[in-house]
Every structure is written in C-alpha cells, then in structure tokens.
Design goal:
By secondary structure, the chain is α/β, with parallel strands linked by helices. Helix content is 55%, strand content 12%. Helix 4 packs parallel to helix 7 (119-135). The radius of gyration is 42 Å and the shape is elongated.
Length: 822
C-alpha cells in the first residue's frame, strides 16, 4: 500500500493539525522569551504575529472536534470557529479603516516592532473559519461549499509560497501592508489539508478519497500536478537569475520538461490502467463462467426439487387420500383409531416435506411474492381456524387484538404472511401447556404510502434460555436439541419464517423469559389496499345496548370489551361466574356473554343462576373452547341463545349479537348450515351431473381419485396418460378432466393444449392434479388451457370443494372455452 493510500485510510490528517499547534506554541515562546529563531525561520523572512498564532490554535482545535457530538461539538468546534471568524472580521475592518491597534498590539505592544497580521492572512482565516462552520454541518451541500472555501484558502497560501520562491514580494504582501510570514503559509496549507481530511468521504474530496480507479488515479496524479510545476518553475527562475540560460531558453526548457515528465507519468499510469483493465476483463470472464455454472446448478436444483416434490407427494397422495376414503366408511372405534394414526402420521410427514421443499425453493430463488389485497383480520382468523383443534386439545385460549386505529386491509402476499403466522402460532401452541396464545397487530407509517405491519405472537409456555435465542432462526436448529425429541420438528420452520419475512421487506425477532413464555415478532413492508376486501356486518342494533361479559381470562375479557365498546355498547365485565350473577341481580342487561370453562362456576351454572334474576329474558351467548355443547341448552327461550366455538371470528360475533338484539335468528341458521356443510358428505352428482375423466399414470392414485368421485356420486373413466386422454375426448365428450401433470408419452400440459385445439361442441373443465408445487406451476397450467389447480396430496373434501367451486359456473361446462395458447 502506498503512502497516499495509508494516509487516506487513516486519521493521519489530524497530524497536520497537531503540527500547526506545535508551530504556533513555538512562535508564542519566541515572542514571550524573545527567542529570535522561533519567531521566524531566518533573519530575512517575516515573523509570524502573536494574533496569527492564536487564530491557528483556535482553528486547529475546531477542526479536531468536528466529529465530536452534542455539547462538545458546540464548545470545542463551533465556538472556536466563530471566535476566529469574528476576530479576523474586525481585523479586516481595522485594516480597511486604517486603525493600527488590535488584540496583538494590546498584548504584545512592546515586542511587535511593526509586525501585524497580514491582510491575506486575515482573509485566509476568514475562509478557513467559514469552511469549518460549513463542514461541521451534515448537509452535503454545506460540506461541498466548505471544502471549496478551504481550497480557496489553500490557493492563497500557494500563491504566497510562489512569491517567496520567485522573490516576487507582491505575491505575499498586499500593497504597502504587512507581509504573510513563511510559517503562516505552511500552517495554512496544513490547515487546508486537515479540513479536507476530516470528512474525506463526503463532499468534493470524496471523489479523490474513493477506493475506486478514479480515486486511486487522482491520488497519484495530484501531488505531481501541484508540486511539479512549482519545482520546475523555481528551477527555471533560479537558473535564469544566475545567468546560466536566457529567458527564452529557460521558458523552452520548462515547457519541454513538463511535457517529458507528464508524458512519462501518463505512460506509467496508462500501463497500470491497462493491467487493471485486463484483470477486470479476466474477472468478468470468470464471473460469466461462474454465473453459467451457477445457472446450470440452479436449473439442476430446480429439476431435482420438482422431481422430489413429485416423487414424494405422489405416494403421500395415496396415504392421505386413502385415510380420507376410510373415514367415509363404517369403522369401529379401534379401526377409527388406526385411521387417525395413519392420518396424523401422514400429515406430520407432509409438514416436514413442505418445510424442506419451501426452504429449498427459497434457497434456489424460486419463491416469488404475490401482490393481492388481503385483510389482516381474516388472515389471523384463518390461521386460528387451522390451529384451533390443537389449542382445544390443550385447553388453550387463542386470542388476537387489533387496535381500532390499525387499518385492516393491505396489499401483499397473504399466503406467505399466513404461513409465517401459522408457524409461529403452531410453535406457541406446541410449547405451551396452559394459558393462552395472543396475536397482537400494530402498524407504523413509512414514507411513500408504505407501512410496516408489526405482528407479535405471545404465549405463556416454557420460554427460551437467553443463550439459545441466537440459534432459533438458523436452519436445522432448535433452541435445545432435547426439544426435538420431546416436541418434534425439523428446525426449519423459523428459518423459513425469517427468509419469508426478509423477502417481504421486514425483520423478525424474539423476546423470551425462561419458564414464563415467549413473544415472536415480525414486520412486513406493505401498503394499504385502496378498497376494503369485505364489508363489516352491521352493528346498528348494538348501539347503546348494555352487555355483561364474564370470562376468567383477563386478555380475552379485555379484547371482548374493546370490541363491544367499538360497537357502541355499554360494558360491564367480571372475571368469574359468581360475580357475574351478583351483577345480574342488581343490574338490568340487554345481553350476556359468558365463557364456558371457568373455575368454581362454569358457563352453564352461571347462566342457570342468571336466569333466576331480573335478566331471565336477556339472551346469553356462550363462548366455548371445549367442543360442542348439549343441543338441549341452545335455542330460543333456552339456557343459551347460541353457542360459539373459540377462537371467535369478530365479524361472526358482531353479526350474531346484532341479530339477537334484532330478534333475528338468521345468523345462527347460517352458522349451523356452515357447520353441517363441513361435517357431512353430500352427493354432488344429484346437483351437478358431470361426465368425468381421470388422466393419471399412477395406479394407486387412479383408484383413489375414482373412489373419491364415487363417494361424491360420480362414475369416472380413466386414462393412463395424456395421449389416452386426448383420444378419449375424440371418442366421447367429457364435462371435466382431472389431469395429472407428469405422465409418460404426453404430459398434462401438452394434453391440455391438444384438447383446447380440438373442434369440440363444448370444451371440458380441466383441473390440474400435480405433486409439483414449485413457483410458477399454476401459471403454467393456466397458460396451457387448464381451468384450475389441485395439488397433491388432496383429500375428498378438497375434491368436493373444487367441484363445488365450479358448480355455479354451468356456462363453463356447456360453452366453448376461449383460451389463449402460448
């Protein structure tokens, strides 16, 4: 590393300032003790005035403290610079007005002997102090102007040096005023360098100090550009003055010398640049080669992932699909237990497979985010729907809280957001034996209409030791290896969450106290949706109604009371049944909400006691996390007006409460119909008669698909590959084709394209069946002319939902499809 490079990468610029201070102190000593050599370099040169020494010390102290913060910066940087600025301003005024007295004449009246601060010195100090004050600011424009002023001060000093070198007095003396001392000239040059170096990575000087080709070249060229003309000019002047050469010859030699030396320097630097350029070109070739290798590796990895996904999910479809079919048959309790074991094991294995594939997709760069409107409230409620069964088994409360000021509708990838939520809530349930899991949402406004959506998932579980926190988001890692044996898991979930959150422009972290619980929090960068995704149900009938809320869980009590207050209700809360009964004896309520699982008095006992008070006609809403309640307790004029299973959807709750206050039971009927739909199998064939073809090469999956369709009331034909499916369409029309993607002879994509090109009276509905869940797979299906996408493994409910999705689109089944082929 060259000397200039070492100087650039260090704080060696401060050394110049210390040299100035030392010179000034030595000159001071010369004035106090009348030591002649300290006041000037030789008897023929001008002495530095005491006032000039003082100003140099103040300027040096100011520059040394530019980087200090707060009070120190003001005290040791701003104040000294202002003192210099004011002092030299008065000095310039005094010189212009002809005054002969100033600070130096007062302090050293008997020793000055006509020495004063020179006008050009005063001007240099004015430029330097102004430069310091500007560079001390953070604005890049201020720094640029400050460095320009410092450069002007540097030029004034260089002109004075040339005056001394060429014996031209007018260059360092302004008219009949006092001359600038030689030590002053040196100190001004050092001061200018110190000012440049103090913020060498900002402003104009940043171009020169940059660690790039331009910066390196300028640092090598500048010393020669400044020093070379001065030295050559001085040599020419001295030779001419000594009479060795004439004026014309000296000028010619000067020009020739500059040309020769500059040409040599340019040749040397051009040679260096050629070497650097060749190294850069070689690096570019290596980079292109490495990029091609990486691209081939990525494609190989993509093919491997697609094949692995297909090979793993295809037999998994057989396992999970078979359990789905078995659950529709008559089984005794022992057989149901065996089927449940197979189902749980299959789904656990599928979760592990999904984690590994998701992690691999992210690492391969094959996961892309979607931009769609979504509701954060719906995302949380859908997460709770998936997790409620596991929470109910452990009697845990699943709760969420969204402040009223937080917007509900955003634009982003709700699928990936929900994936992170499901993972964090699932972990919270897994490591919590009693208590609650709480999701809280906050939002922070960012510039350009962007928002940081913050979600916190808190539990009352086992907690995490502080020394294990850093390992949580590493792949294949858990806080404690023993937890893998006790709780299971690949250790990939949180690593995937961290990568997904990073892709969504956010951060993820954790706070935990061992034995008391953990809080995982993450942010995603998003923007508001221009219109709401869904309309909130009316709550007009709830306004000014009084409600008694009874729940032993303080968090749930707080959340319910906040929402009832939002709906305009008057709220009374209590944390156990006995107190609720006492309130009911002395107060009249329009509505009562009670939890089921409470100590001492449960929801049933509490409601029975309340019915004996003046509130016997007030409808009671039961919230339960323990499963279904005896139906004899529920209904109009019974113990409970309605029972809702936790976790509660707030829109559903508001709809139920509003209908109760309006004496309308339609919401209850809607809820019952919804439950019935999810609990029973229906014969779709009677409602949507279809001719169905299953195109599948795997014999097990053929049988499962056909059996599932038979359970739904359909008889289906089978094609072993895409070519057979095309030929089958030529023989007879089909309303729907369940088309596997990977098949021999002709895959599902080519078969779909061929069918779409056929001249048919009406085109069939084509549903892709694929075990490949890589990014872009669904888009490929749509481009090939398919109508929808069903990923393996799938259960009978998924197939039923797919048919029901299209049951109201009869025109799709009876009219020719308009498909744009690629």
């Amino acid at each position: 590393m060259s000397g200039m490079e070492k100087l650039r990468k260090s704080n060696f610029g401060y050394v110049y300032l210390y040299i100035i201070i030392v010179i000034a102190i030595l000159v001071y000593m010369g004035w106090f003790f009348d030591v002649f050599p300290l006041k000037h370099f030789n008897p023929q040169m001008v002495r530095m005035s005491p006032l000039t020494c003082t100003m140099f010390i103040f300027c040096s102290i100011a520059v040394l403290n530019i980087r200090s913060q707060g009070r120190n910066n003001i005290l040791y940087c701003v104040v000294p610079a202002i003192i210099v600025f004011v002092a030299v301003s008065f000095k310039i005024v005094a010189l212009i007005s002809g005054m002969d007295s100033f600070i130096d004449t007062i302090l050293f009246a008997s020793k000055l002997d006509g020495n004063r601060m020179a006008p050009n010195e005063a001007m240099d100090f004015l430029l330097s102090s102004s430069s310091i004050l500007l560079i001390n600011r953070k604005s890049n424009l201020s720094i640029r102007i400050g460095q320009s002023l410092s450069f002007a001060s540097f030029l004034v000093a260089v002109v004075a040096i040339l005056g001394y070198m060429y014996s031209i007095r007018s260059l360092y003396v302004l008219k009949a005023s006092y001359p600038m001392a030689m030590h002053s000239v040196i100190c001004f040059i050092l001061l200018a360098i110190g000012i440049f170096m103090v913020k060498k990575n900002k402003g104009l000087i940043a171009v020169i100090s940059a660690d790039k080709v331009g910066g390196k070249l300028s640092r090598r060229m500048l010393p020669f550009a400044v020093v070379l003309p001065i030295i050559l000019g001085w040599l020419r002047f001295e030779m001419y003055r000594a009479g060795y050469i004439s004026d014309e010859i000296s000028v010619s030699l000067l020009i020739i010398s500059i040309i020769v030396i500059s040409s040599v320097l340019i040749w040397l630097y051009a040679r260096s640049l050629n070497i650097v350029d060749e190294q850069w070109r070689e690096a570019q070739r290596d980079l292109i080669l490495a990029k091609n290798i990486a691209e081939n590796a990525r494609k190989a990895q993509e093919r491997f992932l697609a094949n692995m996904s297909h090979e793993i999910r295809t037999p998994m479809n057989g396992v999970i699909g078979t359990t789905s079919l078995l659950n529709t048959t008559d089984l005794n309790e022992e057989q149901k237990g065996f089927v449940e074991i197979i189902r749980n094991s299959g789904e656990s294995l599928l979760t592990i497979i999904n984690d590994i594939l998701d992690f691999s997709k992210i690492e391969a760069g094959k996961m892309e985010l979607e931009e769609q409107p979504f509701s954060i409230q719906s995302a949380i409620e859908e997460t709770f729907d998936l997790m409620s069964f596991e929470a109910h088994k452990k009697n845990l409360e699943l709760l969420y809280s969204i402040e009223h000021s937080v917007p509900l509708h955003y634009i982003g990838d709700v699928t990936r957001l929900r994936q992170v939520l499901v993972n964090l809530v699932s972990n919270a349930i897994k490591f919590t034996d009693k208590g609650e899991v709480l999701v809280k949402v906050a939002v922070d406004t960012i510039d350009n209409d962007m928002y940081d959506l913050e979600i916190r998932v808190s539990d009352t579980g086992i907690g995490i030791p502080e020394d294990k926190l850093q390992r949580l988001f590493q792949a294949f890692s858990q806080a404690d290896e023993s937890t893998t044996r006790k709780y299971g898991g690949t250790g990939l979930g949180l690593a995937i969450c961290a990568k997904l959150v990073q892709m969504m422009g956010g951060t993820i972290g954790v706070e935990s106290v061992e034995g008391k619980g953990s809080t995982f929090f993450f942010t995603v960068r998003t923007k508001l949706s221009p219109e709401t995704i869904e309309q909130d149900p009316s709550t007009a009938n709830l306004k000014d109604k009084s409600v008694l809320i009874i729940d032993d869980n303080s968090t749930n009590l707080l959340i319910l009371s906040r929402h009832c207050e939002k709906w305009g209700m008057h709220i009374t809360t209590c944390d156990h049944g006995a107190k609720g009964v006492e309130y009911a004896k002395v107060n009249k309520f329009d509505l009562i909400i009670t939890d089921m699982m409470m100590p001492d008095m449960d929801g049933i006992e509490t409601s029975k006691a309340i019915k004996l008070t003046q509130n016997k006609n007030a409808p009671v809403v039961l919230l339960s996390s323990s499963g279904k309640i005896d139906i004899s307790f529920i209904g109009k004029d019974k113990l409970f007006a309605i029972s809702l299973i936790k976790p509660i959807r707030l829109n559903q709750l508001s709809q139920v409460l509003d209908s109760l206050m309006a004496n309308d039971d339609s919401p209850r009927s809607a809820i019952e119909k919804q439950d019935h739909h999810h609990e029973s199998q229906i014969n779709l064939a009677s409602e949507v008669p279809l001719r169905i073809l299953v195109a599948e090469d795997n014999m097990i999956n053929q049988k499962i698909a056909v059996k599932m369709l038979q359970k739904l009331g359909y008889n289906a034909d089978v094609a072993a590959n895409g070519l057979e499916a095309v030929n089958a369409m030529k023989r007879q029309p089909y309303d729907m084709i369940l088309m596997d993607m990977l098949m021999p002879e002709m895959d599902g994509l080519d078969a779909s394209r061929a069918i779409r090109k056929m001249d048919l009276r009406h085109q069939p509905l084509i549903i892709a069946l694929t075990a490949n869940v890589m990014q872009g797979e669904k888009e490929k299906c749509i481009e090939a002319g398919m109508n929808d996408f069903l990923s393996k493994p799938f259960m009978i409910a998924s197939l039923r939902d797919m048919i029901e999705k299209w049951r109201n689109s009869q025109d799709v089944l009876k009219k020719p499809q308009v498909v744009l082929l690629p």
